[in-house]
């Protein structure tokens, strides 16, 4: 799964890659982004508009759900196109969640031992995500996950779906709605790019800070 991540690369550097229009709101670095908060994302609302940087609530519950049920933070790539809760968003409302790395926890450790996972070349990450309008009119999203690959298998059996550069435009394209076409055009980064290391257990509590020391190797 993906339940916590870090974002500290300057936002203009991330938006330039997809030609996204910047938000007027200043988005500073965060080293322990948790669910149930507003997170930086990019979406393309229509064929005639440019991608835009927007803040979305990390938690997916469309307005038609009438405030009932959970707000999942992740959606499995294996079922997102067919699950009734997600399939409309997968077809019509796809977005990118911006990150530099994410955290996972080694099982059966006490206290829970977090690891930080990122690209070996330290390039930023573009998580595939879906979004929907919430009851309050704002947008909420869920990050897609896939079976763990590469060294991330050491830490957890799932990982976020991290898109390669060639897939970003297709993933955002609002006119691309056929699920098989989407799957054929969209690819993830090479598993060999991923590395990880243990970090402070201060990550376990987002209230304990957002400083860059959280990603330092133990």
Short description:
With 218 residues, the chain is mainly beta. It is built from four helices and twelve strands, in the order E-H-E-E-E-E-H-E-E-E-E-E-E-H-H-E. The strands form two sheets. Strands 2-1-7-8-12 form a five-stranded antiparallel sheet, with no helix packed on it. A five-stranded mixed β-barrel has the order 3-4-10-9-6.
Shape: globular
CATH topology: hypothetical protein yedk fold
Strand content: 25-35%
Number of helices: 4
Determine the structural class based on helices, strands and strand pairing.
mainly beta
**Major sheet characteristics:** 5 strands, antiparallel
What is the terminal separation in angstroms?
23 Å
Return the average pLDDT rounded to an integer: 94
> SSE order in H/E notation?
EHEEEEHEEEEEEHHE
Strand arrangement, largest sheet?
2-1-7-8-12
The appropriate CATH architecture is Alpha-Beta Complex
Poorly predicted ranges: none
Strand tally: 12
CATH class: Alpha Beta
